[in-house]
Amino acid sequence: MKKQHILYLMLALLFLGYSCKKENPISNDPSLKLSFSTDTLLFDTVFTSLGSTTHHLMIYNKHDDDLKISSIRLLGGEDSPYRLNLDGESGTEFYDKVIPANDSLFSFMRVTINPNDLNSPFVVEDELEFITNGNTQTVKLMAWGQNANYIVADKVVIIGGEPYPYHIVADSLQTTVWTKEKPYVVYGYALINSYGTLRIEEGTRIYCHQNGGILSWSDGQLIIDGTAEEPVIIQGDRLEPYYQNTPGQWQQILMMDGRAGADHRISHAIIRNGTIGLNSQSVLKPTECALRIDNTIVENQSGYGLFSILYAVEAKNFVIANCGFANFWAFGGDYRLVHGTIANYWDANEHNKNLAVQVTNYAKDAQTEQLFYYPFHMEMDNCIVYGKQKDEFSTQFSAEADSTFVLDHCLVKSEKFNGNMAGFNHCLFNLEPYFADYKGNFHIDSIASSVIGTGNPIFGNEVPYDLDGVARAGMPDIGAYQYIPN
What we know:
Layout: H1 2-19, E1 35-36, E2 40-43, E3 52-61, E4 67-74, E5 82-86, E6 89-91, E7 93-99, E8 103-112, E9 123-132, E10 135-144, E11 149-152, E12 155-159, E13 162-170, E14 175-178, E15 184-187, E16 189-192, E17 197-201, E18 205-208, E19 213-216, E20 221-225, E21 232-236, E22 252-255, E23 264-267, E24 269-272, E25 276-281, E26 291-301, E27 304-323, E28 326-344, E29 355-360, E30 362-364, E31 371-373, E32 376-381, E33 384-387, E34 393-396, E35 403-408, E36 411-412, E37 424-425, E38 428-429, E39 435-437, E40 441-444, H2 457-462
Parallel strand pairs: 2-10, 11-15, 13-16, 14-17, 15-18, 16-19, 17-20, 18-21, 19-22, 20-23, 21-24, 22-25, 23-26, 24-26, 25-27, 26-27, 27-28, 28-29, 28-32, 28-33, 29-34, 32-35, 33-36, 35-37, 36-38
Antiparallel strand pairs: 1-3, 3-8, 4-7, 4-9, 5-6, 5-8, 9-10, 12-13, 30-31, 39-40
């Protein structure tokens, strides 16, 4: 009996001690935040798990007080393909979840996607939002929405003080070929390393995610080999109708200085809806390569169509259209443009200087305000330079560097320049070109157009077929397209 009394007494004391134990308070301090096992939950196994897969997410309270999460919800709501599971319950939103001090909450995230649904976007994104003591924190959710080749950044390089996340697709002394069998989705930058080559074959479709693109590092080489029947298409990865003509969806194709005998070549490509379509920069060293463009359309860029610093660029049979700052902007370098249409009727917002062509031979360092001068040379033959501004051709030259330009048999929109001034040979000024559609179709649509039959046949023979493959016979039309009567 004594032993039983002692046992009961011990249990009573233990229960009393437990019931009197002081619990941790729930803190309402807004400086206390949650921590997570990751800031981005990537579902990269959707295609191997019949369209659905589950990952776990750890939610940590690394503080000495309890925390109450007043709200946990998927921002996509009931329409989101994602579902959250907490405490055995699945849903899109939860409330008043307490995490004890220095403890964690275990959760499951599930996504269900049909990878063969061609109407779904390539990258399916959502965010999981947490609100704790007035603080809002989010975890990004990302899954692949269609069956494609996915290029996902796994490293970061700093260029000009800005981070560039990248994945190497063509390493040094390696040639990588992209083909048309499945589209390529680029998340970050697809990087061509020094002495590497990326060749993109006809019919290939490339969809770049926000802030991504293609980057050819110093001494790398980019070759785009499209055809008239099967051009290479590079655009943003949003396929919904709203995004068909939305600029700024991705960043750029950036080509740094290159080596001799390894010119960048872009043939029969359509590059649309980015920030800078083609960005060629020779900054680390004088480039020994050229950028050669033919039968290519660059359109609807929120910044620039062709942006070039100290590069050698040759472009034939091309259209650069409707860009937010300038269709073609060049600082220093050597340029030859033949049978091009450079037309800017940008209307996405109201910039003051959204010009067709802007060239200069000097630049100012933003920090030191020091001026740098470099020689500039440009020949523009049988080209259209037009838009809705009064002056679509702008030059800013200093006598500190040699600079020359010649426009031969071109149509130019300008109040500043005229045919009596040096640099303009047999040019037309301020005459209506009569484009078919100023928002995107720059074929000539009227027999009254000033460009019909007014080109130089020497340049027409150099580029005997227009961008549609129509022969330029006799006196060619100015621009990228020959006029064809309806």
